[in-house]
Write a structure and sequence with these properties.
77 residues, mainly alpha, 2 domains, 53% helix
């Protein structure tokens, strides 16, 4: 490749990255999830009901990848 082509590709890459950052910064935050639809009355839960942070985990423990991820998520909680 010519050095001019490399320079133009580099400048294009920088412009795309800057544009991506601007879009991410200006993007509005999504509304918080409605916990009533995520957590049923018979769902297993840990900790206080009025906690500031709620973690909802969806998994299929017959799936080897989900079972392996459970080991990691269990150690984090």
């Amino acid at each position: 490749m010519k050095s001019e082509t490399k320079t133009m590709l580099g400048m294009l890459l920088v412009i795309v990255v800057i544009f991506g950052i601007i879009v991410m910064v200006w993007k509005k935050q999504d509304a918080p999830a409605n916990l009533d639809t995520l957590i049923r009355s018979d769902s297993y839960s840990m900790g206080p009901v009025d906690a500031k942070v709620t973690i909802v985990e969806f998994a299929d423990f017959q799936c080897p990848a989900c079972a392996a991820a459970d080991v990691v998520s269990s150690t984090c909680i």
